[in-house]
Amino acid sequence: MLAYIVRRVLYAIPILVGVNLITFVLFFVVNTPDDMARMQLGAKRVTSEAIEKWKAERGYDKPLLFNAAAPRGAKLTQTVFYEKSVRLFAFDFGAAEDNRDIANEIRMRMWPSLALAVPVLIVGLAVNITFALFMAFFRATYLDFWGVVLCVALMSISALFYIIGGQYVASKLWHLVPISGYAGGFDAAKFLVLPVLIGVLAGIGSGGRWYRTLFLEEMSRDYVRTARAKGLAESVVLFRHVLKNAMIPILTGVVVVIPLLFMGSLLSESFFGIPGLGSYTIDAIQAQDFAVVRSMVFIGSVLYILGLLLTDLSYTLVDPRIRLQ
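Below the sequence we write its predicted structure tokens.
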């Protein structure tokens, strides 16, 4: 087990290096340090001296990937990529282009993101599994048919429709909840009710259909036919046997997204004015703040790799026959 974990961690290093390099190249293909300087200085006519001063203060005056003028051993280290990206492996995120500490922003913004993402995950999981079990129980009937139709219809609707429609109906017409905003403590509940409901509703289509497929696949196996031959009720077979044996793929989908809950929801946080990591990332992209963008991409990569590792380890809890070598 320990050797497996160490091996997976070592495999993650080149992946993270590659992700950092790709993010760096993509960002600076679209934006140059001069463009970033003009954006941050916020003036229509910025002198070249002001641009060079801004770049020198923030370390963007060096070559991006290769410094031909540097000494032999420093051609790769005296570059923007090395100075800005390599220190991320020590979780040193530095400061944003507006001089605010990125690590402190992450610590403050992760809690609103979790307050939104955790209820969506838990409630959505319960709703999707219940709906899928309902369709599987009444398989090959009109209830199952119209359930699948509903899932396809929900999958075909954009998440923006749910957000804008929910804000219009629940907030503007009925005045049930605020249309946007956020507050700390228990006051956050009134701002999170609508985003959570929309998040759950938007996931019913894909989640319900996927879980239904899992349950129907399990119901076609030999152990299910044996249980029915013994005279067990269909509800007992479904809940005691099918649901239990379908937990491995269910667990895969759940565990892999748990670390990513910290990253927040880009659309929901932006439209509902929730100061989480999702809206933080969107604001950084709009402001061409490479320091924040690279930090959020790096954290997302680390959390995704951690989720895959936790998924593999959780298999041993669900199925004792699985042993990690």
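Residues 105 and 221 are 51 Å apart (CA to CA).
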